[in-house]
Amino acid sequence: MLLLAFDTATDVATSALVDDGRVLGERVSVARTVLDDVHALLRAAHATTADLDALVVGTGPGSFTSTRIGLALAQGLALCLDLPAAGISTLDALAAARDGAFPVVDARRREVFVLGPSVASPDDLELEPGVTCVGNGAVRHRATLERKGALVPPDDDVIHLPHARLHAALAREFGPAEELMPLYVRAPDAKAPSPA
Fold first, then answer.
1. 192 φ/ψ angles, rounded to the nearest 5 degrees
2. Which residues, at least 6 apart from 101, have a Cβ–Cβ distance to it below 8 Å?
3. Which residues contact 146 (CB under 8 A, 6 or more apart)?
């Protein structure tokens, strides 16, 4: 099964082309260039969109806008290519990078997203001593997490990226892309104007 997977929920977007578990190619960029990455991955694998069997997309949590970009792209591609899709949590993909990894995604406002999913202050996290924290939230809040006894790999370690190949490896059930829902965890900052 030839899968196209991508995650745009964090400040770094990842994409991968995976054929029956074998990674044919991977790219790291930003959300706005994922479609270019898709084209490059297919070209490098000597494949076309007609060869794709399904899509896998990261559902967050992360940046509201970036998460929506990824889901909109998945829904658009699925519609025009008549492909099923699966949604995988960005936190689950980060956790799959290493046994026992504790995923921490930057939620801004001095908060982080963690498995649950939930949002919390890094100071309020209850961590097992020696646990390895991964993700952009772990990098941003390194001092707090290390003070609590956690291990945080170096900032440039690729374990902090939500690799799309891990999303593909976790995907089990595929269905209509329009049914995929983002994991926002908290309400957006934007508020509807008051009638007054």
1. -65, 140
2. 94, 95, 132, 133, 134, 159
3. 152
Contact between residue 96 and residue 44 where contact means Cβ atoms under 8 Å apart: no
Domain that residue 127 falls in: 92-158
pTM tops 0.90, yes or no = yes
Same domain, yes or no: 22 and 82: yes
Name residue 54's beta-bridge partners.
3
Q: In this structure, is residue 191 part of a structural domain? A: no
Strands 2-7 and 13-19: antiparallel
Length of the chain measured in residues: 196
**What are the tens digits of pLDDT across the range 37-76?**
999 999 999 999 999 999 999 999 999 999 999 999 999 9
In terms of domains, do 71 and 112 share one? no
| Encoded tokens for 116 | 């649950």
The amino acid that residue 138 corresponds to is: A
The C-alpha atoms of residue 117 and residue 134 are separated, in whole angstroms, by 15
Give CA–CA dist 35/58, Å, rounded: 15
